[in-house]
Amino acid sequence: MSDAESDVGDVVDDPLVEVVRAVGHENITAEHASTVELTTDDWLTPAGDCIVGVEADRTPRDFSTSFREACQEADATITATFAVGEPGDEAVDVDDPAYVAEIAGRGDPDLTLLDDRSMVGRTSDYTDDERTIFVDGDGAAADLDRDLVAALAADAPVTLRLEVDPAE
């Protein structure tokens, strides 16, 4: 199990929640219509139009086994909450972030969540890589609020909270 931060900022021991911290980058455009991504890389080219955070402190490989297994249920709901601070902030105040966006997708038996470099949420049902963290998402990078994207392009910090609600 891994420690994760709740939506009110408290540290909890919840195997169905994972938290990833990253920062924005001047080349963030968030224009991709079918994916949204965070990477551990400390650089970004303009071609990376799905990337909304660099220097991520965790990858899918770091996620708890319980979390990964719950994501492999086809009827599981996976909610990605992006909390973004102001440019110049050291970290996101998760109790009062400057910007918040949420994308919900579903799990799939073919999700492995084992990549050690990046994570991708998808609006499609594509699962053929270890980076995919959810499929059939109700949004992607292009759907994010443009003020949130502008903050990320000015190097604002971002905290991604992933929560899986297993199928009943």
TrEMBL record:
It comes from the Archaea. Pfam families: DUF371. InterPro entries: DUF371, Mth639-like_dom_sf. PANTHER family: DUF371 DOMAIN-CONTAINING PROTEIN, DUF371 FAMILY PROTEIN. This is DUF371 domain-containing protein.
